[in-house]
């Protein structure tokens, strides 16, 4: 008999034990009780009751609960692109978001009874977090040729490429390029660049090239740095 897919929303409890990892998808956390200390790519913050954060794909984050009682959050993982616009933006209505999160957290305790609420919960959270794109003013934007930009970067792994370099090629400002990358690729510009470089290195290794030569061609500072990067990606 076909079993229904488990709800993607979950109520999670965090203790004082420190955790650290990265995902290949967005992770959305809405605080319910206590305070969860979280550091994302070196930027620290706390998620208390009524506060929320989106961790973008590939961003390594360290976390631990403050206080002996720990912390609880409504959490879900998603590859839905529109969450990119929430990664660096506070919720538009924190009170509404918190009330919705508390209700959905209750629903996770009885998933069969509240199956419809859990199914539509992520869309409701996104709506509560940020206005829908259709309600924002429409502006004409320069198209980014991502494949061409990727090919340009692949030919320059020997250089210390930056977001400003990518922006110059795309004829945008660094802040515009960073925002567009979040919106259209779902990750930060530097993570997109790191992902391209690691993918190229993996291709060369699969073709039989040695670790040292692969590291040299793809701009890693040493063979061990390349090996460590490949292992980290395989664990995520």
From TrEMBL:
The alphabetized UniProt keywords are: DNA-binding, Transcription, Transcription regulation
Span of domain HTH araC/xylS-type: 147-236
Alphabetical list of InterPro entries matching this protein? AraC-bd, AraC_XylS_family_regulators, HTH_AraC, RmlC-like_jellyroll, RmlC_Cupin_sf
Q: Would the keyword rRNA-binding turn up in this protein's UniProt record?
A: no
Q: Which Gene3D superfamilies does the entry mention?
A: Homeodomain-like, Jelly Rolls
The yes or no answer to whether the keyword Transport is present is no
Q: Which residues form the signal peptide?
A: none
Q: Which PANTHER family match?
A: HTH-TYPE TRANSCRIPTIONAL ACTIVATOR RHAS-RELATED, TRANSCRIPTIONAL ACTIVATOR FEAR
Instruction: Write the protein's name.
Output: AraC family transcriptional regulator
Lineage of the organism: Bacteria, Pseudomonadati, Pseudomonadota, Betaproteobacteria, Burkholderiales
